[in-house]
Each structure stands twice: as structure tokens, then as C-alpha cells.
Amino acid sequence: MPIFEYNCEHCNYTFDKLLIDRDAEVNCPLCQGDVKKLMSSFAVGVSDKVTGKLPPTPGPGMCTTC
After folding, report:
1. Which domain holds residue 18?
2. Cα separation of 48 and 41, whole Å?
3. Category of 53 on φ-ψ map: left (φ > 0), alpha (ψ -120 to 50) or beta
4. CA 53, CA 23: separation in Å to the nearest integer?
5. Pairwise pLDDT comparison (52 vs 9), residue with the higher score
6. 49 located within any domain
């Protein structure tokens, strides 16, 4: 499900909102003002194909370039 980031044009409050319907009307949760959808970054995780777990954080002696 997509999570979008918005900024209120009235009070300048920035917030995230999970939307099931992309065409749903979104207003500021603080002042009910009009909002502008922001361009935001996203996270991508790579999991182990066998266990589904994320790889461990690199520690001493672990290769960090492969």
C-alpha cells in the first residue's frame, strides 16, 4: 500500500498518509486545509531468499563492497 507525504498549504504541517484509494481527497489533519503531495524518497530492502530475513549489519571483517 502506498504511503504518501503531504504538506499543508495553510499551516505548513508535513505528514504521511497511507492511501488505499489514490484519488481520495486528503486534507490537513490539524487545520483541514488544502495539501500538496510531496516527492519523497523510498526504502528498498533486500532479503535472504531462503529465510526472508534482511542481511546482517556489516561488522568487523565483513565485506561491505559486494
Report:
1. 3-37
2. 23
3. beta
4. 34
5. 9
6. no
In a domain, 10, yes or no: yes
The region that residue 27 occupies, defined by phi over 0 for left and psi between -120 and 50 for alpha, beta otherwise, is beta
Name the nearest CA neighbour of 38 among 66, 64, 12, 56.
12
| pLDDT score for 30 | 96
> How many separate domains does the chain show?
1
16 located within any domain:
yes
Which residues lie below 8 Å from residue 48, measured CB to CB, with a gap of 6+? 54, 55
User: Is 61 within the bounds of a domain?
Assistant: no
**pLDDT digit string, tens, across residues 34-63:** 999 998 776 666 555 666 666 666 666 666
